[in-house]
Amino acid sequence: MSHPLEPIYALQKKDRKLIKITREIRDIPKRKGDIEAQLSGTKQKLETALDSKKHTEATLKEQELEVEVLKERVVKYKQQQMDAQTNDQYRAFVKEIGTVEDEIKALEEKEIVLMEALDQGKSIVAECEEKLGGEMAGISDELGELDDRAAELKERADKMMADRRRTAESCDPAILQKYTRIMNNKRDFAVVMIESGGHCGGCHMKLPPQVTNDARNPAKVVGCNFCGRIVYNPPER
Ligand SMILES: [Zn+2]
To answer: By C-alpha distance, which of 18, 16, 14, 11 is closest to 154?
Structure first.
């Protein structure tokens, strides 16, 4: 007579493989997230560089407009200067025009600095874009491999589930119920072999000789007095 724990023990082997595979499937999105997170540093740098470039461009545009306005003012003053009635009026325009032209000169000097900054900003953006492109190409392979792995594992898990169902059908329903309850609780093993010296294979405590003997008896299903796992002592060992 075969031991009633034999199919249960076989079921546990399948369940342990299934648990491992299910865990790996579950962890794949996180692994993908970790890989994608490596890009966030370069992405962040690119965003900062783009913001700074945009800001410089806007400031430059503002200053260019301001210079235009000032230049128009100079033209207007020069016209008014020609219509001056007195020397005092004329000199006042010379002074005004000088002040505005100084302002224009100062703004144009600032523009040169801004244009240099803009060139620098553009090359930083280009560098970041190139780096990001390379990184994205690198991770797309890794992400693709993980997607393939997930698909392969899901297929394998489906097959294993079908196989597991068949094994479960060959188990004694009462023992299967007990097994399921312990497995859900312990999450590692529900059926353990008795180790040499009569120790429980789950918690490694020394079992009473009666339990060790009963565990050999196909008519009895006994549990460890300490951890509650079903102890199995196949006679053929
Ligand atoms: Zn135990």
So the answer is: 18
Considering the domain architecture, whether residues 154 and 198 belong to the same structural domain is answered as no
Q: Write the pLDDT tens digit of every residue in 103-155.
A: 999 999 999 999 999 999 999 999 999 999 999 998 999 999 999 999 999 99
Give me the CATH number covering residue 147: 1.10.287.1490
The answer to whether residues 72 and 147 belong to one domain is: yes
Please say whether the dihedral angle defined by the alpha carbons of residues 23, 28, 34 and 40, taken in this order, is positive or negative: negative
CA of 5 to the centre of ligand 1 (A): 16
Ion ligand 1 contact residues with beta carbon within 5 A: 200, 202-203, 224, 226-227
184, 154: one domain = no
pLDDT in tens, 159-170: 999 999 999 999
Domains identified in the chain, total number: 2
- Write out residues in the chain with pLDDT < 50, as ranges: 237
pTM here is 0.65
Q: Are residues 61 and 130 in the same domain?
A: yes
Task: Give the Å distance between the CA of 192 and the centre of ligand 1.
Answer: 8
Residue 160 contacts by C-beta under 8 Å, 6 or more apart in sequence?
Answer: 14, 17, 18, 21
Give me ligand 1 centre to Cα 139, in Å. 46
